[in-house]
Amino acid sequence: MTSVLVIVCPAILAKSANHSACYNLIFPALSDPAAFDGPIDKRRSILALDEKIYELRRDKLKQIEALGQEAYPRKYDFTHIVPQILAHYSASAGEQLEASRVNVRVAGRIMAIRLMGKAGFAHLQQGGQKLQIYVKKDAVGEKDFELYKLLDLGDHIGVSGYLFRTRTGELSIHVEEITFLSKDLLPLPEKWHGLTDVELRYRQRYVDLAMNPEVREVFVKRSKLVQSLRRFLDSHDFIEVETPMMQQVAGGAAARPFTTHHNTLDVDLYLRIAPELYLKRLTVGGFDRVYEINRNFRNEGISTRHNPEFTMLEFYQAYADFRTAMDFTQKLIQQAAVDVNGTAKSKWGAHEIDWSNFHRMTMREAIIHYWPEGSGAKPELSDFATQDSVKNLVERFNKGHAHVAYDPKEPAGKTIASLFEAAAEEHLIQPTVIYEFPTAISPLSKQKADEPEWTERFEIYAGEMEISNGFSELNDPVEQRKRFEAQLSERERGDDEAHQMDEDYIRALSYGMPPAGGVGVGVDRLCMLLTDSHTIRDVILFPLLRPEKESEASPQEPES
RNA sequence: GGGCGCGUAGCUCAAUUGGCAGAGCAACUGACUCUUAAUCAGUAGGUUGUAGGUUCGAUUCCUACCGCGCUCACCA
Q: A156-169 pLDDT, tens per residue?
């Protein structure tokens, strides 16, 4: 049995040549220490520099071991973390620190190091913050100073010593003992500009996070956001549940699913596109308030607003309708904004979004309100009533604005929704609730009592993005079957994103589902809005990218 | 999938009209016991994303491909 260490060499970072030689660079088996410690096979050493640095640092690691330090120790007992020290002692004057000595043991990654003969400085980074250490040969002794000289940017160390202020007044640790904790064998990006290449930032998020504190901050805020959503729902007596990610019918949304296969059962399964139908089954079972925060998977395009896997909050409240849900969602989002940023206002590019003030209008009102100047008279409510009048509206609209396609075979409601998106979406920067959606595009929503062509459904927009979607849940099994059947005919018409029939869901409704309001919230998009991130990849730690090419040697296959 | 743009040292970027591929940081050697983008002296590091083409000569012009970004379409 041989174990093999595969080195992904830094040339890959550089989009540079010779991927194959680099990618397949394999060091001798770990089980043979002599082989491992030996020089790299020169036949594979195309990129001499990177291997030179790697080798050099491995060599330093051996020298560090020779000083009596462990190469990869198991733990370090610390008394403080860097952010803690900065928070507690930033205001302490040098005299204070001298008068009552503060002893500390701290661990961190070296992000800057300056050697000056028999003394030196370094900056330790932990928790996204940096603290300077001062290492003097007289103070740490011969051996630890030798160790200090062997340290590289990126190494992890622990130091014990006491706090003081340097001549220039910077709070620092006067080190008395250094413990080596881990070696960085690959060179970090340049300290001044950091890592800016977006591809590398996504592919090697670990380097991005180590180098760019503002990136770290975004993901800290994301954590606060999710925490806030949970806290709010928990405090309103919702219980969190987990429903299947692998489903036999991918329902609850209009999207193409990913497919997979279970071998033992020999069944094809879909990765879920939404948890909706399962959560509503739970309301049938008597869980009156449920929510789930988890991943959905949609096999659609990738863009600044779309990642194939994304995080969605869905919640359902029995004995409530879409109006209750609207009010509740608004409060949920307002609370999240405050919890994340400490204020109800957030920067969004050149704009400032005010989460304390939600606008509200129906979809039809929005189309009328944002009707383009060049498209003539604003529509009347009656213009939305018939297939012909809607066709007329589209023709009028297209005179003054970008083209909206008209397909006489598609239901009028679907055309109206397209019209809404074309006319209004780009204006919806401040939080806006749009409600009353066409029944044709809302197969899971309850109709309005007085207008069966329209449903009790709303979406919340902000920053020109849809971030939430909710409605009075359709709980009439007979009507639900009809809606599914209408979707099936859409599917036959060629819409492969139309909903599928779900017999078990109909059966569940037949046992009696309480009236309920349900809502979905796009967590990634909300996070984008609250962190002024204009691409979804900046709020997803490891966004989906094309795989790195493994070998230049294999023939390039032309795109089919 | 369509359109536009980008790809040069580990990182951040230069390279005039097509004419010897460079700098800073990082790395290495040496000096330096309060520096902080430490400083000073020296050294090394490149198949300019890949493959072809035009040319006496290609980082530069052309074609295809690979990767990334922006954008349109679809979607949340």
A: 999 999 999 999 99
Can you give the pTM of this predicted structure? 0.88
Is there a contact between A203 and A211 (Cβ–Cβ < 8 Å)?
Answer: no
| Helices A523-531 and A213-235, packing angle to 10 deg | 130
pLDDT digits (tens, 9 = 90+) for A526-558: 999 999 999 999 999 999 888 765 433 333 333
How many alpha carbons lie under 13 Å from residue A46 in its C-beta half-sphere?
16
* Nucleotides on strand B lying under 7 Å from protein C-beta: 1, 7-13, 24-28, 31-38, 45-50, 64-76
Q: What are phi and psi of A432, to 5 degrees?
A: -140, 130
Distance CA A215, CA A209 (A): 6
Q: What is the pLDDT of residue A549?
A: 55
Would you tell me how many other CB atoms lie within 10 Å of the CB of residue A164? 17
Q: Distance in angstroms, CA of A78 to C1' of B37? A: 30
Q: Which helix (H) or strand (E) holds A57?
A: helix A48-66
Strand nucleotide closest to residue A15 (CA to C1'): B49
Between the alpha carbon of residue A396 and those of residues A317, A404, A408, A553, the distances in Å are 41, 10, 16, 57
Distance A191 CA to B37 C1' (A): 8
Q: What angle do CA A34, A37, A43 make, to 5 degrees?
A: 105
Q: Cα angle vertex A269, ends A265, A270, to 5°?
A: 165
Regarding beta strands A246-247 and A289-297, do their DSSP bridges make them parallel or antiparallel, or are they unpaired?
Answer: unpaired
